Hints:
Helix 3 crosses helix 7. The protein has one domain. The radius of gyration is 21 Å and the shape is globular. By secondary structure, the chain is mostly helical. It is built from 20 helices and 2 strands.
Amino acid sequence: xxxxxxxxxxxxxxxxxxxxxxxxxxxxxxxxxxxxxxxxxxxxxxxxxxxxxxxxxxxxxxxxxxxxxxxxxxxxxxxxxxxxxxxxxxxxxxxxxxxxxxxxxxxxxxxxxxxxxxxxxxxxxxxxxxxxxxxxxxxxxxxxxxxxxxxxxxxxxxxxxxxxxxxxxxxxxxxxxxxxxxxxxxxxxxxxxxxxxxxxxxxxxxxxxxxxxxxxxxxxxxxxxxxxxxxxxxxxxxxxxxxxxxxxxxxxxxxxxxxxxxxxxxxxxxxxxxxxxxxxxxxxxxxxxxxxxxxxxxxxxxxxxxxxxxxxxxxxxxxxxxxxxxxxxxxxxxxxxxxxxxxxxxxxxxxxxxxxxxxxxxxxxxxxxxxxxxxxxxxxxxxx
Length: 384
């Protein structure tokens, strides 16, 4: 019965995905190229068949899709096509994968870039069974809540690197769990290398390296191994940023200011929700904002409980704690919107909290439901 329920969720997701197919442009509707900015696209993209949405102002996926067509930034036109070239170019991994899947042909690259988030979702569905097997109602709610969370579905809908990066983080922590009871260099180095790759997709993925704290011992060998693993995490992004510095000089390290004074962004969001409730208390945007923020509080509370729990701390708890801190320090620009970019930025927190809830059979249904209730309006909005 539970296997059938899992299969039904996958079928419902794929059925919703088909709504975005637009012949003859395939799933390039996901990328959100605006018709008004067609003249700003790089020539290779302009000449490749793709969907330009006349009703859309565009979104970030259009920048990464164009990077996929020119993944080494050799065409000077790429700077005019991106809103912040050094910042966008740092998140290059899934532009590279789209280039490889598209065999270097612009039309195929755009189609590959548009669909790879769907592929990542399916891989996530398979990987999460490791912690949430189809056997109980609790596992089903946690598995479904993770896959249909606003951050996950927004990443698919807008062709963004958040879900694939979170998938790599989950893979890294799955590998790290092999060393949960002993200090084994092989799995730790492999997990660190995967985190390093994830950092090329989204630099905040490097926060997952906090799992290494679990393996610090009182002997110098453990410190040396953990330090080496930390360098492995940082190395891929450091090498790529060094390449970008050869193009953009000091601007390669530009930061759009997404981290600010702790709690200021969250307090702003709570004030914005209060205003939304006074204007339109029953609208879907307001509802999903309220439920997503409640979900953040529930997920953060469970992570902090895991950190405070006596005994051995799991890698997921340490990684999740790093994302709790990121959420508390996130700028208002990350929180604004309905529900807001924070659901994507903190997607590894959602995964971490649900994995940890799955490991605790006595976790209350109240915390499980609160942490995942925003999946319902998110799926409705995705499928509508």
